[in-house]
Design a protein that fits this description.
- The protein is α+β, with helices and mostly antiparallel strands.
- The strands form three sheets. The protein has a six-stranded antiparallel β-sheet, with no helix packed on it. A three-stranded antiparallel β-sheet has the order 7-9-10.
- Helix 9 packs antiparallel against helix 10.
Length: 704
């Protein structure tokens, strides 16, 4: 944000026409959400007041800059319907935005599947090629990328590089390369690239990232522009990289770790799922473009519906109840990754590294058969039926050791394809060496070929039936390729061999979750908690499962512990708040309590809930669901003023959610603001015309 611009506050005016409703620091300048108070619209005409997003771009560089900037490619940039200068600041008024900011989607999902990343980058590379050749630039940031309703991708801020306020871009192409690499890093890991120090491998965050992507992204993020690849080279490497390893969500099972002999324990990492990011209607939120900070959160669960009762301060003559009375207490799971072991930090691209990385693309795309076509014998008649060992290699332990050392060196040099070739020769020459299986399985994982890792480890556990870690690795890789039968058998064996190992118990529990057996999953993860009581992820996931089993008191117990162990995780706060709300609802059925006792307990639980949701919003002030549930909880508590403020904030962040407008209607009704409540309910019906609950509420309110 320009240091010469002062952010306007809610209620202030821009150009005597636009009244500021909310303001957000943007990638450049300030983005305002404003009501249109002038023009053709006048109050009382029976239609909703129009609003616009307005970007205070900055102090213009010269008189012609405004006109020049607006001569933008509409295929790449979202159209601006008006530009003007007010008090020396250049403003762009965008046309009504139809779509969702990429940043908001990252709030729901954290990191994206490889296929989605590739598809999104493909569109951005297309824009970059066209714009860079004309000397134009756009900030490649999730806040600045709009995914339109017609399936296209457009930027908000950008234009002629020499005229952009606040931007000094000596080399447009290298800046595009750096921006796209930064975006790819965030899409894949859910984190901003670290500044200053040398970039560690991306695969420490996520095990399924192809090695060629890892290398290209890190090179493109070099602080030295001359060391970055060309735009064409980056595009070729990213769009032709290996296919993803299947569509099993990463958060449901950690990636296999590096071998135990390296002496580094598997690192814990939170998943990309939050406690609740589906709404009361069970849909993932469609968002209007409001600036948000990327955050590793997503969605899971399904809504439960309960009986409705009026809230504490419901207005007379209406049966409107908060949307939350449908009991949409959605919780999700989180798991640590195991990919955090130490890695060699040698230079990423050596003389043959680039060629080897490109070969990895072919290997992974072709799969196991393609690998054998490239590197093994071409005559199918000579192939061994196992498809694991090289049929041309004779058993020779001494030669196997040489090949293994060479494979480790190639891996350290990021020459993954060569490392696979040598690792396969090593395990073929000495199939009774346990470490060779672990090494080669991890190489397959780096190449995005988990299926080959499964086949290899199945041979490995035959020779080492009492090796718990090998069985656990097999379980994890089998889980990735959705072979739950193999995963179950292998995981059972690892737990049988080491029943005290909390990680193996936790993995076994996650497999039971995938199989739909929540009860057994809870028992196993509870055992993991007993053996590793400081692991916040275990506590949280157990709370989630117990919630689904409707053991709410125990769910609260473990959710509170997760928050205690990791108080900066907004997902844990959400899960805890939802559990409080669920317990409040269940008190309605408690016949042992008097009406007074019940009301007092429910009020206390509502207070705990809104405090938990409020803590989540402080940790992530763009988390619309947290504001929504805070509003619901405050309504139950009787704090209507703050409830209204919270739900209005949720609507600003995500105006497409019908449930948010319905909740606002409920609160306004309780405040005896009938006309405003009707408008809110009409908006809810407009967004979800088939929702009988909304339609009945609107009809009833209008008839009173």
């Amino acid at each position: 944000m320009s240091d010469q611009m002062k952010m306007k506050q809610s209620g202030e005016w821009i150009g005597y026409t636009y009244r500021v409703l909310d303001a957000f620091p943007f990638v450049q300048g300030i983005l305002y959400y404003s009501a249109v108070e002038g023009g053709d619209w006048e109050p009382g005409q029976g239609e909703s007041q129009p609003t616009r997003f307005i970007l205070a771009v900055g102090k213009r560089k010269r008189e012609e800059s405004a006109r020049h900037l607006l001569k933008r490619d509409d295929a790449a940039f979202f159209p601006v319907e008006e530009e003007f200068v007010d008090e020396g600041v250049l403003y762009w008024v965008f046309r009504p935005l139809a779509g969702n900011l990429l940043a908001h989607r990252l709030i729901q999902a954290g990191s994206l599947p490889l296929g989605e990343v590739r598809s999104l980058l493909s569109a951005i590379f297309g824009h970059a090629r066209r714009l860079a050749s004309k000397g134009e630039y756009a900030v490649v940031d999730p806040l600045n990328i709009l995914e339109t309703t017609d399936g296209n991708v457009r930027f908000l801020y950008g234009g002629a590089a020499g005229s952009l306020p606040g931007a000094e871009i000596p080399d447009v192409e290298k800046q595009w390369v750096f921006g796209i690499a930064s975006l790819a890093y965030r899409l894949l890991t859910g984190h901003m690239p670290p500044e200053g120090a040398a970039l560690p491998p991306l695969r420490r965050h996520r095990g399924d990232i192809p090695a060629v992507w890892d290398g290209l992204i890190r090179k493109a993020l070099s602080s030295d522009p001359s060391a970055r690849p060309t735009l064409a080279r980056l595009e070729a490497g990213m769009l032709k990289a290996p296919e993803e390893r299947g569509d099993v969500p990463e958060e449901q099972m950690p990636a296999p770790a590096k071998p135990a002999e390296e002496g580094v324990r598997r690192a814990e990492r939170g998943s990309s799922l939050p406690a609740a990011e589906k709404g009361a209607d069970g849909r993932l939120p469609a968002v209007q473009p409001t600036p948000v900070k990327p955050s590793p959160i997503g969605a899971d669960g399904s809504p439960r519906r309960g009986d409705g009762r009026r809230g504490a301060n419901a207005g007379p003559g209406t049966d409107l109840v908060p949307q939350g009375k449908r009991s949409p207490y959605l919780v999700s799971e989180e798991s640590p990754t195991s990919a955090g072991r130490s890695r060699n930090s040698q230079p990423l691209w050596k003389s043959k590294g680039l060629v080897a990385a490109l070969v990895v693309c072919i290997v992974a795309l072709a799969g196991l058969g393609g690998y054998q076509w490239l590197f093994a014998d071409k005559d199918p008649a000579d192939a061994k039926p196992s498809a694991v060992f090289d049929p041309e290699v004779e058993e020779d332990p001494e030669q196997a050791a040489v090949w293994h050392r060479q494979s480790v060196e190639a891996k350290n040099n990021k020459q993954v394809a060569q490392a696979i070739l040598l690792g396969r020769k090593a395990v073929s020459a000495d199939p009774n060496k346990r470490d060779y299986y672990v090494h080669l399985a991890e190489l397959y994982q780096e190449a995005g070929d988990a299926q080959s890792a499964v086949l290899l480890l199945q041979e490995g556990v035959k020779r080492f039936p009492d090796d718990a870690e090998l069985h656990d690795m097999l379980a994890l890789y089998a889980y990735q390729v959705k072979d739950l039968k193999t995963a179950e058998t292998a995981s059972d064996r690892s737990v049988q061999l080491e029943p005290e190992n909390p990680e193996y118990l936790y993995h076994r529990g996650k497999i039971f979750v995938a199989q739909g057996n929540q009860r057994t999953a809870a028992e196993l993860i509870e055992e993991a908690v007993k053996r590793d009581s400081k692991n916040a992820v275990y506590h949280h996931d157990l709370a989630v499962i117990l919630f689904r089993l409707e053991e709410i008191d125990r769910s609260i117990q473990y959710a509170e512990k997760a928050v205690q162990l990791s108080d900066s995780n907004e997902k844990y706060r959400m899960t805890l708040g939802l559990a409080y709300l669920k317990k409040r609802e269940l008190l309605e059925k408690d016949s042992d309590l008097s009406a007074k006792e019940k009301k007092e307990k429910q009020r206390s639980l509502a207070k705990k809930a809104y405090e938990s949701f409020q803590a989540a919003t402080k940790l992530n002030d763009r988390y619309s669901q947290a504001y929504y549930y805070e509003a619901m909880s405050r309504f139950y508590y009787g704090d209507l003023s703050n409830a209204k403020r919270a739900v209005e904030r949720a609507i600003v962040l995500n105006s497409d959610r019908a449930s948010y407008h319905y909740q606002l209607g409920v609160i306004l009704t309780a405040q005896n603001k009938k006309s405003e409540a009707i408008k809110a309910l009409e908006k809810a019906v407009e967004l979800e015309p088939n929702n009988d609950r909304y339609k009945k509420a609107l009809t009833k309110l209008k008839s009173e």
